Amino acid sequence: MRSGFAALAGRPNAGKSTLLNALVKEKLAIVSDKPETTRNEIRGVLNTPDAQIIFTDTPGIHPGAHLLQDRMNKEAANVISGVDVIYLITDGTRPYGSADEHVLNMVKQAGVPVFLILNKIDKLPKEKVLANLTSWQKRFTFSEFFPISALEQTDFSDLIETTIKYLPEGDPLFPTDMVSDEPIDFRIAEIIREKVLHCTEEEVPHATAVLVEQREVKDGVTEIRAVVLVEKEGQKAILIGRSGRMIGKISGLAQKEIAALLKTRVDLELYVKVEEEWRDRDAKISSYGYGNIEQ
Q1: Domain locations along the chain
Q2: Which of 86, 108, 182, 187 is in the most buried spot, having the most CB atoms within 10 Å?
C-alpha cells in the first residue's frame, strides 16, 4: 500500500482546478477563466486498491497588487514544500513567461519529483505539443511528462499509476470513503463565489468574498443565508443589479448547484455588504478563510 500527497501548481488559469475535479471525478474546486479563482488549498482524495493519493490544488502563483495575493502565493509555496510529488501544470496554448518562470523556480526548491503536465493539448497540433515538451525539458529535469487535456480527457490512468510509484509506502492518511476534507459551508460559499465570477466582470469578481452565516434544515428544506462581500459601494450596486436582477441570477444559479451537492431542497438568501479594502487587511483575509498559512 502506498499513500501520499501530490500538489497541483502553476500560473493562474493553467487548468489546475479542472484537473483536480477530473482526477477525483467530482467537482471540488470551482472553475472560471478569471485569475484568483482558487484562493485556498483544496484537497481531493483518490483511493485505488493499492494506494491513496491526496491531490492538493493550490492558488495560481503570480505577483499581485494586494496582500491577499501575497498570502495566496505563500500558501501555495507552503503546500508545495510538504508533498511527495508536484504536478507543474502549464497551459500549452500560452508562451512561456515570467509567471511560468516564477512557478518553476518555486518547484525547483521543493526537492521532490516534479511531473510536467502540459495541459490543453486538445487546442494544439501534435508538432506544437512536441515543441512545448522539448522547450520545457531544457529548463528543468522533470521526473515525468504528461501531455493532457484536463477538460476533454476522461482517462487519467497512466498519470495515476505513475504517481503511485513515487509515493511512500504506508497506510491511508484519510478515510477510504472520503473524497474531500473541505467543510460543507466552504463548498457552499465557493459555489456562490463561482457564480459571481461567471456573472460579473472587471474588478467586481476579484473584490468578492462569500461567507455562509447560517445553515439549517426546516421541514426538509435547507435554509442558507450568506453574505457576499465587496470593497466599494459601486461594486455593491453592480452585484445587486437593477431591481435586484444580478443578485437574483447569482442566487438562482448557486441554489441549483447547492441543492445537487446537499441532495435536498435549498432556500438560499444572499445579501451584499461593503468591507472596504478587505484584500489588504490581514485580519479580514484570515477571518474570511483565505491564505491559510502560519502567521
Answers
A1: 2-165, 184-287
A2: 86
**CB of 25 within 8 A of CB of 33?**
no
**SS3 for 210-232, per residue?**
EEEEEEEEECCEEEEEEEEEECC
**23 Cβ contact list (under 8 Å, min separation 6):** 44, 46, 55, 156, 159, 160
Q: What is the pTM for the complete model shown?
A: 0.90
Same-fold call for 2-165 versus 184-287: no
What is the tens place of the pLDDT at every residue in 35-64?
Answer: 778 888 899 999 999 999 999 988 877 666
Per CATH, the architecture of 2-165 is what?
3-Layer(aba) Sandwich (3.40)
C-alpha triplet 125, 126, 129: angle, nearest 5°: 95
Q: With cut-offs at 50, 70 and 90, classify the pLDDT of residue 71.
A: confident
Cell output for 147: 501531455
Query: Does the CA dihedral 122-125-128-129 come out positive or negative?
Result: positive
- Other beta carbons within 10 angstroms of residue 203's beta carbon come to 14
**Burial of 199 by CB count in 10 Å (0-12 exposed, 13-18 middle, 19+ buried)?**
middle
Q: Which amino acid is at 87?
A: Y
Instruction: Name 135's bridge partners.
Output: none
CATH topology of domain 184-287: GMP Synthetase; Chain A, domain 3 (3.30.300)
